[in-house]
Amino acid sequence: MFRLFYILPFVVCVYEILSLIFPLRAPVWLKGVFSLVLLAGLLKNMLYQRTPSGFDVMELPYPVILAISAVFNFIILALFMTLAKDFLWLLWKIVIRSRFPSGYASGLVLIVGTLSTVYGTYQGLRVPDVHAHEVVIPGLGREFDGLRVAMMVDIHADSLSPRSFVKAITDKVNSLNPDVVLLPGDFVDGQVDSRRGDVEPLKNLRAKFGVFGSTGNHEYYFDFDGWMRELKGLGIRFLENEHVVITSGDSQLVIAGLPDPTGGRMGLTAPDIDAALRDSPENVPVILMDHQPGEARRNAEHGVALQVSGHTHGGQIPGVYTLVQRANGGFVRGWYEVGNMRLYVSPGTSQWNGFAMRLFDPSEITLFVLKCE
Q1: Helix, strand or coil for residue 332?
Q2: What are 151-180's pLDDT values in tens digits?
């Protein structure tokens, strides 16, 4: 799988050199420079191949990792633009039957692709804004009217989302004065020894009723047991097929969590909604953390009031929405009504270093303000 992950970008890179760089109305030496820059973007994939998981990168200075990632981002974006250019070339030859202005078309693709890459990479790395939502929860007790539930998901702490970034989002969540903090998965990309310091600021999260987490698929790609010990040591209570009941006066609210299905495929704990809600109080609303949204319909059948998920990153760039939708049960970003349950799929709080950009699909910190009927 990872060998294919390496070969395909190389093929794409060669295609772009031949179809995008060579036709440019520019000196040969400049075309050579552009070609070498594109080839340098493949270094990112080579770095991936040198790690056991294929999802971490070697420890290099931040500017180096950023530059390589930006070029790789351009390669991906420019592929779609170059294909569109070549399709237009084909139509031009069939309909107009004159010389196609390949040099100018390639220059336009290069300019638009570069500007889009710069903007998208910036959007992927910046500290996200807070998106607040009032959510009516049937059966919610009066004492919980106005309860503030903050969520961060898909943090992916790594060389591009380092300690400074994690500290910034932690401080931003604390500034919201949340009553509950939910962290439904994908905390980190990397080994415990190299990334321990990057996630450490999460220990400063503060919430009246607690900080709760569940696993995402990326926790399983590294030292799962080691990361569970590390993250729990930061004060995060993991709910893996479990629930807790928080109480205020005569009102109760259930917070439940499921492990990511990746665990089951690796011989570890698989998600079990029956086990997660076993012995939970009747007629008490349930908020469920499930990293991947694909099983929302199953969860809705068990009386969950609100499910919160991530994993999809909202698609990250235009045109990918449909592919992500098919892989996640039809759920990509934002609000969905699933039976009597409401589902919120966050676009994520950071980005994944495999494709570190967000084009017109910004990340977010989510704040739910719960309301009675």
Answers
A1: coil
A2: 999 999 988 899 999 999 999 999 999 999
3-state helix, strand, coil in the chain (%, to 5): 45, 15, 35
What tokens were used for 309?
A: 């998920």
Length of the chain: 373
Domain boundaries, the chain: 2-125, 129-371
Which residue in the block uniquely carries the two structure tokens 């591009």?
160
Tell me the pairing of strands 129-136 and 364-371: parallel
- Separation CA 146–CA 295 (nearest Å): 28
- Tokens read off for 246: 């928080």
- CA dihedral (152, 156, 158, 162) in degrees, to 10, reads -10
Amino acid at 108: L
Nearest CA among 34, 69, 61, 12 for reference residue 354: 69
Question: Which CATH number applies to 129-371?
Answer: 3.60.21.10
Tell me the pTM.
0.93
Helices and strands counted in the chain (H then E): 12, 12
Q: Where residue 203 falls among pLDDT bands split at 50, 70, 90?
A: very high
